[in-house]
Amino acid sequence: MSKRLYRSNSERMVKGICGGLAEYFNIDPTIVRLIFVALAFAGGASIYAYLIGIFVIPNEREVR
Description:
The protein is an all-alpha fold. The chain is 61% helix and 0% strand. It has a domain at 26-58. The protein contains four helices and no strands. One of its GO terms (cellular component) is plasma membrane.
């Protein structure tokens, strides 16, 4: 079975982007959230990536 990237319903804080990435890479969602926050303070690129991910990455319910 191939891995699919989706927005998580179970590990959701705002829209489930970080939770979905964490499930895809099999790591703790807190680590992904900390990376997003660090990148936001470093230049703000993660904010744009998060916003794009909201519209591009499908929700978990739509995938399964």
